[in-house]
Amino acid sequence: MEILRQSFQIKYDYNVYFTASIFDLNNKALSDFFRNSDTGYLRKIMFVIDEGVNNAQPNLIKNIKAYFSKYCCISLVQDFVIVPGGEECKNDNKCLYDIMEAIDANGIDRHSYLAAIGGGAVLDLAGYVSAIAHRGIKHLRFPTTVLSQNDSGIGVKNGINAFGKKNFIGTFCPPDAVFNDINFLQTLSTRIWKSGISEAIKVALIKDATFFEWIEANQVLLSLRDTEATRYLIKRCAELHLMHIGGADPFEKGSSRPLDFGHWSAHKIESLSKYQILHGEAVAMGIALDTAYSVLNNRLDEAKGQRILALLLKFDFHIDHPLALIHSLQSPLIKGLREFREHLGGNLAITFLSDIGVGEEHNQIDLQLLIKSSEMVSQFAKPYMPLLFQ
Amino acid sequence: MEILRQSFQIKYDYNVYFTASIFDLNNKALSDFFRNSDTGYLRKIMFVIDEGVNNAQPNLIKNIKAYFSKYCCISLVQDFVIVPGGEECKNDNKCLYDIMEAIDANGIDRHSYLAAIGGGAVLDLAGYVSAIAHRGIKHLRFPTTVLSQNDSGIGVKNGINAFGKKNFIGTFCPPDAVFNDINFLQTLSTRIWKSGISEAIKVALIKDATFFEWIEANQVLLSLRDTEATRYLIKRCAELHLMHIGGADPFEKGSSRPLDFGHWSAHKIESLSKYQILHGEAVAMGIALDTAYSVLNNRLDEAKGQRILALLLKFDFHIDHPLALIHSLQSPLIKGLREFREHLGGNLAITFLSDIGVGEEHNQIDLQLLIKSSEMVSQFAKPYMPLLFQ
Ligand SMILES: NC(=O)c1ccc[n+]([C@@H]2O[C@H](COP(=O)([O-])OP(=O)(O)OC[C@H]3O[C@@H](n4cnc5c(N)ncnc54)[C@H](O)[C@@H]3O)[C@@H](O)[C@H]2O)c1
Ligand SMILES: NC(=O)c1ccc[n+]([C@@H]2O[C@H](COP(=O)([O-])OP(=O)(O)OC[C@H]3O[C@@H](n4cnc5c(N)ncnc54)[C@H](O)[C@@H]3O)[C@@H](O)[C@H]2O)c1
Ligand SMILES: [Zn+2]
Ligand SMILES: [Zn+2]
Fold this sequence. Notes:
- The structure is a homodimer of 390-residue chains.
- By secondary structure, chain A is an alpha/beta fold.
- The first copy, chain A, has 18 helices and eleven strands.
- Chain A has two domains: 15-187, 3-Layer(aba) Sandwich (Rossmann fold), CATH 3.40.50; 190-389, Dehydroquinate synthase-like - alpha domain (Dehydroquinate synthase-like, alpha domain, Up-down Bundle).
- In chain A, strands 1, 2, 3, 4, 5, 6 and 9 form a seven-stranded parallel β-sheet that branches.
- The radius of gyration of chain A is 22 Å and the shape is globular.
- Chain A starts with a strand and ends with a helix.
- The interface between A and B is large, with 69 and 69 residues.
- β1 of chain A pairs antiparallel with β1 (2-19) of chain B.
């Protein structure tokens, strides 16, 4: 039998810029970006905006128009596509269709940009559209939540929901650039703001003990949404995520997902709550459970485990939420674990901790120990209860 | 302003296997493939089949079932998704939905395969679904037309139509393997069979004079659908396409598309004919026009130009089809050229010939010379008319 072999590599690169008031007329970050990426082609840019952001920041579109009329390096499409923020835009096919139609109507081609301003959900949707329209158009992201600036908005994944399943459809497709503008965060509710912190705790726990200690030391400032502390938190968390993604397996061909520490249960908790529990909140619950497991499994020092649980509680994460607890082998989270194993093709790969800053992959999980871990989390959280519900 | 840079490479490789009767119980190509790619995961395979092929080859599904029950290296999903062949499946969202739903219902995950058997249209659709379901599942192609075995089915592009535009949606996403089974071609109509030859002539003209001479020398055998000649034609054409794709720009980030020689007008001719003219037939018309232009522009020797036009006519390509002719600056093809220029972001990049086997890129096109080129094609084809319509 004759065989022809095909083999090639594709190089991807993009920058994540940390800035403030990106559409301020004195901020050259964006105009410099377009000047430096000039290709001689006529280029257009069209914006998709999260409705929540647009309502909270009513001058946004006016500012964008003023910016592009000052710096006329690229042609701004006057048609702005506003989509509902949050999971709704990933569930509703009409949002996908509206963006596609605007791309067609405004002649956005492979030399032009689809820019998205919003939380992780809107970025996931717009990133997906950018990946499939004309087999891929250029894409810029302006994340507006802590979670999307430190994690979801800077990576390579996009997606929408279908058949009742989160991210059933999507691609791996890096953006052309990400602009993390700290001032976008000002109008966030404290609940959504804080939910982004758990991803920073997560990545610190598996990769960087010093960062974990920094978060511990700055817990009060962070809870007060202090700008400098927030800026550092986001920057370091983004950096650790980017380093990991740029490492061995950017498009997740294998099964190993250390960045998904705490996530096997988080995904199930989110769906059990019908997405009333936010992703970051569920991740905090998942971190607590897997930290307790690491202790009971004699991998992690007990005192260190307690520091982790205490930190999560100080950020008001409800780690003993009823949906996050495992009372018996019939608990829904155990069912979730089975689905997760199936999803991985039969072989489990779950990250636990052997130290603060050190994740390690396990290929099996002791269900009885998991039930005890859940109990340990409840016991530990009990004294904090009054604080949470005061 | 602080900047984090992300940079990584992704390696892609896949094989194109040339075989016959792939589901014959004695053919080990497929079972070897699964044995060699074993990862220890539970893997499934689900088939999408072109209705035209399934009708023409009524034992196909029975043979597939028998094959996988003999070689039980992977679990065969008993649900076969049959989709209409040809452009219809790329236009009709229901086909996309049916495949997606079957993926969900049968638990096809990132370790499992979606296999597609069919012409270029069904492969384009199934390739697209494979690229987006679960952010990419594994994908095998079994092309069943000359065109898809030598060109469309072995490459990295997929797509569906939307907003009345061909391939408005799609991705660049290499398959995991391609199995070119010569026996699939037996049930093709002669018209569809022959339409695939023009892509071989095209790639020979821009890359390989020896291959062009081989096609000239074997024109009669090829027209008679001789197996050995066909096998060589497909193999060499596939090889030239693969070499080009694996070269400078696999995912077409730039504007240069030498493989699209003859295609700027072909795409417009197909759409003007409401897709009654097949892709390969339109490409033959496009090759004729751009060959004539290369001669009149003093880049290509006239005698060589005539050899090319003569070869196209010997394969019965209707190179002076009314929709392919340009009588004035108001002709629809001139409008198509303008759209094409726009599509390229304002800068034209069209391949013409400076010799047989040598393409060269031009950034402008002389419209008056194009009208004369069309006239040259008509004049040349006139004596062949009776042959075409006898
Ligand atoms: N692609 C990835 O790698 C990845 C990783 C993790 C999470 N995600 C996805 O991210 C999504 C969650 O994103 P999120 O936590 O950023 O929240 P979100 O996108 O769900 O937004 C939450 C709410 O905040 C509003 N909002 C956003 N920014 C605002 C601002 N600056 N001011 C006022 N309101 C604002 C939105 O309108 C929305 O109502 C989920 O869909 C999740 O699946 C993706
Ligand atoms: N992805 C790419 O790089 C690329 C390149 C070129 C063309 N294409 C696409 O390929 C499509 C054209 O593909 P095509 O020329 O292979 O034809 P096709 O897929 O349009 O099929 C033509 C007809 O032949 C039937 N058929 C296919 N195989 C058969 C067989 N063995 N026996 C009997 N009937 C059979 C089909 O049912 C259909 O009715 C177009 O949609 C075009 O856009 C894609
Ligand atoms: Zn997460
Ligand atoms: Zn073609």
